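Before going further, learn to read the protein records used in this course. Taken together, the tokens spell out the fold as the letters spell out the chain. A record is reproduced here so that you can trace the correspondence yourselves:

***
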Amino acid sequence: MNIGNNCGRHFQSYFKAKRGYCTDLTKARFHALFNFFSMSFVPGQELKKDKHVCHLENSIPDDKLLPEVGPIHLPTSERVLKRFYASEGKCALWLFPFHCIQFNDSLKGNAISDDHLNDSPDLSSESDGDLMQRIIRATPRPQYLRNIAKSFIKNVIEQKMLNGKYLALHWRYNHGDWLFHCERTLKHKKSPVCDAVLETIDKPKMIAAEIVEFFNARPELEGIYIAAPLEERPLIDAIKSSIGETVPIFIGDSLMTHMLSMYPNCKWMKDNFHDIFSSLEQEICSLSDTFLYSAGSSWSRNIMMERHAQNIPNEKSWENVGLFFKALKKLHPESK
């Protein structure tokens, strides 16, 4: 890869967004990235843990400037970033800057036009939102992932439809990840969203009925792709039972089978299966006609930002937490 050649096979600086990088998962991601670019740590400067402290040579800033838990949130300020990541190194690696700089401004206003997109940006005057949209448009998922997604849509989804228009549903409400934040929030303040989810999350038939009603209200849609963890099987089964056999429903099993059939002997794909498959499902959701996205999910939000930057109408994307409120209203019809 050109990056490896241009950087002399090593990064000279590492920009940290949080404190620790010594977990087995993080080390595996370093290894995968270095293999991809044919690079490595400078000999003797490998990532290591000493006396319970994670250490990486030539990494900035000092841990004292970073939050004890989670990533730091930085403003969209060139001055602040230059001071925070002051380095003279030729090549730097920004370490997992997830949530480090929020891209929420990319959702404000209109999508950047194709004509404007092809112009060279004037960084002194262009808005943060437009610049963020440029970045989103310039960083699509890897080509091989896009090829798998297009092949799955053409050879699996469209084979069971006339017009190929499908609803993508991302469902990420569980008692672990999502509701953990709710349970913590409710200790300090009221949250109507959390109350609605907590009271209806264990009623998959009611939620499925709302999803089916949403689908049936859009006659142009012919099928559903559901991106959800395995523990959501009761909801998936309830949707299938409620919607009937005439509407095709696709889940991760069929997508995984198709992916592995296209790359049956790819060790790298198998070693990095979780991240690859997650990105592949994002691509399937992004290419859908209509997207029902999960509230509070960065996974869903990334797709929303991508669809907005591609000028997909807002009415083609809906936050699915509203379905909980509809179910709650039917559960308590006496409430106003």
Q: What stands out?
A: The longest strand covers residues 166-170. The two ends are 61 Å apart (CA to CA). Residues 143-157 form the longest helix (15 residues). Residues 167 and 224 are 5 Å apart (CA to CA).
